[in-house]
Amino acid sequence: MSLRERTEELLVGRVTFPLTSYLLNRRGVITRFNELTRSERYAPEQLRELQLKRLRRLIAFAYERVPFYTERFRSIGLLPGDIRSLDDLRKVPPLGRQDVIDRHHAMVDSTLGNACDLADRSSRGPGEPIPFAPFRQHQLVRNTSSGSTGAPTVFYENGSRTALNWVHEFRLKSWFGNMPGAREARMVRLSNEYLPKSRVLRLRNRLWNQLIIPGVNLTDRDYAVCVEKLAQFRPKTLWGFTSALAGLADYLRRNSIDPAPWGIGLVVGWAAPVYDHERRLLTEVFRCPVSNIYGAREVGHVAGQCPAGAYHINAEHLLVERDDDAEASAGGGREAGEILVTTLDVSPMPFIRYRMGDIGAIAPSNCGCGRTLPVLQEFVGRTGEIFRASDGRMISPNFWCRTFMNVRLAGAIRRFQVIYVNDHAMRIKIVKNGSYTAATEQVLADHLKRNFPQDMEVAFEYVPEIPPQISGKYQMVVNEMEHAGNHR
């Protein structure tokens, strides 16, 4: 690294980024990042003690000042003093997405008065920060989930949750040698037409060392613009929607463009898992480590993938459980279940035992990286993406990843989407590449006959494109049975 680059990183990482973040009410980013570099190696007992301390403070706050939780705790006879261990949190019923949709105003700190109404009437976009927020009376920002699982949830924050996301991102990147202030390119939910007009994005480039490029509804023309900007900016980290990153990698491969001169040392996918076929593509094209962040807008970044491949939970600020009362996902076992998340920091709108809609397991760390943070394991997929066939076998999204990684399919299919119509029928949308033939379809059909019951009907639908969702994500599996309310 040149002296100029090192000076630039230090200036951004230690001065301009923390200062501008503070002015947006995103406080203590660097201080907390430094704390996390120590706590990630705490002994398990020390980490649980920290979690319990924060949990007890959170429960007391929610009981006293958040009407929704006051009502919920009283209905089960729970007092703040009843939380004596982390296991005591299981007395609280899980929080569902519909609860948040129906009661989001009641889930906000009652001492904030009419701040929710003011945030609702604001002309700012979802999650858009308030400039100079620390010096304003009303600091709440209205945000929404992506809506990829149905109706979007509305929630409110004051900048503290976004600050924590930055902290967790800094820690993740530091695991791969990229420190705060290092150049970063981010593929975001914006179009190419908007980017040149945004003064905010130009300031992010100068003050945060971030290049913002489009990440949704991308055509080859958009990818060409991205390539030009990336070659000029030379980021150390490339960050974006998993589908956008995979699309960029596919464009580079199809056009024989080598990204090695850009100097990218880390690719991070978020908003969706990096499935096996996408990881292989990204690794082959960018020739650098590929990481992934798991989380949700409502609760923030829950876990990040380390260089050894483990998904370490950000356990200092989030308590993650498996819902033992829900039906286990894998063959009736008890190892995996629906993931529940509690935000341990006191904030205007806490989430306590929030249903993430994902199936997985939590385990102590025995990771080769040496970090003691617990890990998420056995990701099976979202509850609605898991199909139980008529003979009881379970088909997870990863089955489809492995299917389309077949050497006779991978080069012939540009994109696919699986639609479960009912227990006995599915439809598979396919965007062909030039090498797709009738023999390709037969390979796929034979593979499905071997892995599904004989009464499963499969229809292939060939389409020119598969559009993304409103959120910008590409949905690999669609379960029409779930949407119809008659899923198993």
Structure notes:
The structure is a single chain. The protein is of the alpha/beta class and about 500 residues long. It has helices spanning about 5-25, 30-40, 45-65, 65-75, 95-105, 115-120, 160-175, 200-210, 220-235, 240-255, 275-285, 395-405, 405-410, 440-450, 480-485; strands spanning about 140-145, 155, 185-190, 210-215, 235-240, 265-270, 290-295, 300-305, 310-315, 320, 335-345, 355-365, 375-380, 385-390, 395, 415-420, 425-430, 455-460, 475-480. The protein has an 11-stranded mixed β-sheet, sandwiched between helices.
Summed up:
With 488 residues, this protein is of the alpha/beta class.
CATH class bucket of the domain at 387-484: Alpha Beta
The CATH topology of the domain at 387-484: GMP Synthetase, Chain A, domain 3
User: In what order do the strands lie side by side in the largest sheet?
Assistant: 4-3-5-6-7-8-9-13-12-11-10
The fraction of residues in strands falls at 15-25%
Radius of gyration: 23 Å
On the 0-100 scale, what is the average pLDDT? 88
From the helix content, strand content and strand pairing, which structural class follows? Answer: alpha/beta
Report the principal-axis shape: globular
Number of strands: 19
Distance between the termini: 56 Å
| Gross CATH architecture of the domain at 387-484 | 2-Layer Sandwich
> Quick one: CATH superfamily of the domain at 387-484?
ANL, C-terminal domain
**What is the overall number of helices?**
15
The major beta sheet can be summarized as: 11 strands, mixed
- Which regions have little confidence, pLDDT < 50, spanning 5+ residues? 326-334
